[in-house]
UniProtKB/TrEMBL annotation:
Specifically interacts with the ligand binding domain of the thyroid receptor (TR). This interaction does not require the presence of thyroid hormone for its interaction. Interacts with proteasome subunit PSMA8; to participate in meiosis progression during spermatogenesis. This is Pachytene checkpoint protein 2 homolog. The gene is TRIP13. It is found in: Nucleus. GO terms for biological process: meiotic recombination checkpoint signaling; oogenesis; reciprocal meiotic recombination; spermatogenesis. Keywords: ATP-binding, Differentiation, Meiosis, Nucleotide-binding, Nucleus, Oogenesis, Spermatogenesis.
Amino acid sequence: MDEAVGDLKQALPCVAEAPTVHVEVHQRGGSTAKQEDIKQSVRKLLNRHSIVFGDYTWTEFDEPFLARHVQSVAIVDTELKAKDPQPIDLGACTVVLHVFQLNEGGPSSETLEEESENITAASHWVLPAAEFHGLWDSLVYDVEVKSHLLDYVTTTLLFSDKNVDSNLIAWNRVVLLHGPPGTGKTSLCKALAQKLTIRLSSRYRYGQLIEINSHSLFSKWFSESGKLVTKMFQKIQDLIDDKDALVFVLIDEVESLTAARNACRAGTEPSDAIRVVNAVLTQIDRIKRHCNVVILTTSNITERIDVAFVDRADIRQYIGPPSAAAIFKIYLSCLEELMKCQIIYPRQQLLTLRELEMIGFIENNVSKLSLLLSEISSCEARGRS
Ligand SMILES: Nc1ncnc2c1ncn2[C@@H]1O[C@H](COP(=O)(O)OP(=O)(O)O)[C@@H](O)[C@H]1O
Ligand SMILES: [Mg+2]
């Protein structure tokens, strides 16, 4: 119990006591250094920088041990709730270090065989995965979407005992993100899985992300489809049985389930369709009570989503199109990246929206390009609304 309390203090935003600052330490792929030794060196580095300004990442180190074993040290997520970067006195904060190495393997496919046909039923990553590195930071939202999701799922995971599955405690972790296509819902699910794996690494040694391919599953009808779904979830159950793993099941675009049901009702699909949908829903109900499972779902349509699904979601979050300010921030980070790789050369100075505000949007040599970017972002936002 003491351990759980310790975890909670680290993971939840602190209200009364010193605020918590999370530091993600990316250990190099080939490094076999002990996490404790790395943490000790990182603490020394942080002690030399008592005040930081918002999120900050170190990628170069004077100390040879850090240079050899560590790719980056990043103060993260301090800007999730604050509108602008705030000065942070590390000495007055509870600093929590999360050391992680990335799995470079890429996804593996779970295929299900049905007579002569093979269908790719799911893709599977071991987290934290190289593929999703930086994804969380690249996603920009106007409201506190990211911090709400992170806080909610972290709390529910930490409040349940790692080793006790329960039907009694209503701490279900079924998340539904809905909204127009292209607003980052699928990306956010994957980024959240990666973030939680790193954040909770003292409790779960690694993460598993299984993305169920709804399209292939529901676009092909076999007499045995229901059984195939059961077989796939049996594989997922094997992953869940390892209580050191945090298991994320992503069911993207759940509206394909609804479509299957409706087609069935209209008589245009055989009744196998409904059997498959029901099999999936039953399996979700079965696995969601396990305390190391998070079910992530998305839907591109908001109004017609299957009630069976809406009812199952414990947290529903609408993800809308980005505002002009968010579009500006996305473009700015893309341009910075292109200049860093020297695809855009020579480097141009770009101001943030906050900096533009501070100079009263006055045009001069320094602000010219940023003002143009701000104009483009506003046009884009108007075009979408
Ligand atoms: N708010 C956002 N901030 C940054 N990138 C975004 C945002 N929304 C979408 N994207 C980018 O657009 C692409 C499509 O996103 P995706 O997750 O497939 O959207 P959806 O699942 O909502 O259709 C991805 O490359 C994603 O990173
Ligand atoms: Mg999507």
